[in-house]
Amino acid sequence: MIEIYYIEDDRNIAAVVRDYLEQKGFGVSVYATIASAKEAFQKRVPGLVLVDWNMPDGQGDAFCRFIRSHWNDLPLIFLTVRDDSRDVISGFQNGADDYVVKPFELDVLYSRICALLRRAGNVSEQYLSCDLISLDQSRMMVFCEGEEISLSQMEYQLLLLLLKNKGKTVTRDRLLQSVWDMNGSFVNDNTLTVTMKRLREKLKSPSCLKTVRSFGYRMEESECIKEKN
Questions:
Q1: Which of 15, 80, 86, 211 is the most buried (most CB within 10 A)?
Q2: Chain mean pLDDT for the chain
Q3: pTM
Q4: In Gene Ontology terms, what is one molecular function of this protein (predicted)?
Q5: What domains lie within the chain, and their CATH numbers?
Q6: 141-144 and 133-136 as β-strands: parallel, antiparallel, unpaired?
Q7: Residues 179, 158: Cα–Cα separation, whole Å
């Protein structure tokens, strides 16, 4: 099931759109502010985003820029109350893929969503995240607190494996076999410890990267992030 994030402060409109799209087989999460939507992105990247142009804490073009700075291929449609060329141009300049004018027919919105997903596919699978750390598998890029982080090949592969298994403890043996042995590099256990230390330093010692003593490591969202979402 493809998940949609709908950023909309009008509860009545949001409820109607959400119910309709859920009947069509989508999962829909509604956020009444841009700030709450940004917090949700820290936990999970959706398959598509609907952004209302006028929000109580900002405008849609700024949110488009935020999305494109982290998730370049994520399908994005903005909604505007009028067919204003300035809004349309600004939306496309800042990364929107399409727009729909309010008031709109639900089947029109649905057809736009389907058309965009046919072109883009479900790109959410290429994005992995935990707390303020995000990884783009397609571009092989890592971000921490919005800043791009330069990692070595082994550091990147180590983080990738941990994020793919978020919430699960990955043993030291599995990490050594998957990250090093698969690349033809046979190393001792200390190499993993040193690489993990460097990775932690580059990621600003994140609380979501846990050490399971004498066993392995685990990526797990912090309690404060869980509560916000």
A1: 80
A2: 87
A3: 0.71
A4: transcription cis-regulatory region binding
A5: 3-126 (3.40.50.2300), 149-228 (1.10.10.10)
A6: antiparallel
A7: 6
